[in-house]
Amino acid sequence: MSVQVVERRDPAAVERLLRSLPAWFGIEEAIVAYVEQVRTASASFVAVVDDRVVGAALVERRSPALVELALIAVHAEQRGAGIGRALVDAAATWAASAGAAAFEVHTVGPSFEDDGYAATRAFYRSCGFLPVREVEGLDWDGPTLILERPLAVP
Amino acid sequence: MQTTAVEDYVKAIYAYTEWQPEPVTPSRLATNLGLAASTVTEMVKKLSAQGLVDHRPYGTIALTDEGRALALRQVRRHRLIETWLVQQHGYAWDEVHDEAEVLEHGMSDRLVESIAHALGDPERDPHGDPIPAADGTTRQPSATVLADAHDGYLGTVVRISDADPELLRFLADQGVELDERMRYVGRGRFTGGLTVEVDGVEHTVGDDVAASIWLSAPCQEPTHAHEA
Question: For residue B1, what pLDDT is reported?
Answer without folding.
Answer: 67
